[in-house]
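Practice record 12: protein with S-adenosylmethionine.
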Amino acid sequence: MMRQISGQHLVIETAEDTFATTPWAKALAADPALSAVYGEFYAQLNSPMFKSLPYFLKKRGFKSPSDVNDCNWQYWKGTSNNLFADLSTNPAMANDFHAAMQCHSKYNLTPWPEVYPTSTVVSALKPDRALVVDIGGSKGHDLEKFRLCHPDIPDGSLILQDLPDVVKDVQVDPAISVQAYDFFTPQPVKGARIYFMHNVLHDWPDDSAITILKNVASAMEKGYSKLLIHESLISRVNPLARVTVSDITMMACLAAKERTEIEWGEVIRNSGLRIVRIWRPPQSVESVIEVELD
Ligand SMILES: C[S@@+](CC[C@H](N)C(=O)[O-])C[C@H]1O[C@@H](n2cnc3c(N)ncnc32)[C@H](O)[C@@H]1O
């Protein structure tokens, strides 16, 4: 085993039967979320899901799937549940899934407050209003990034929303309050300064994405609230491999996809919203689409 992983440069062989760690190996030992990703997440979820994909696509005449309840996930698992319904009945798999979200956020990405100038929103906060509502925020890692950039914000001014089983035991900083919420129902937090969604809309086909967005729009205050959509925009020519991998992953588990700038524009417009600006610094794979009420 050690010869194999040193051949892949994951540890360094310094002499016969003697190995030095690399930063990657050290992180794997130090971070249980990272070892969950490289262990169970890949073994039980990601890899088997991709094994069945070619057979599913062949069976469906190589058409892009668009029904989250009738895609490769159900074909592979022999279930009628979609991915998120399955996670809610399988705590071990849910733990590995959210570990993967946490690690993607922690190790792969430019923190979103470095993509979007968050200081502009903090300075214009109205009293008694939520500052940031992270919709579908998993374990709160994106709000934690915001808090680290703005350590003086009041307790409870950041709101983490996700499905009840995801947030029930979550441990967060006092700046963050936790709310069980299904984003297919009306948004309960009205007139927040920022509604934030990271890698949420890429999980859903257009009709569902529009339903989710309309629920956000109905809670926004015109001229004050902003929606920040933190996602990859897939280029129509020479797309990045990291984005095409994510595109195929969304197809394999949710009949969804990464969107081009034109496709994002259509979904946002059809939800009663408009794009103010797309923030895409060269160092960041994912962009922030700044959106307001139309
Ligand atoms: C791809 S993950 C992204 C998580 C997090 N925003 C991040 O970027 O790490 C999608 C999130 O949407 C949540 N989710 C799925 N269906 C939901 C629903 N109906 N209502 C609220 N959250 C939901 C999942 O539990 C999950 O945390």
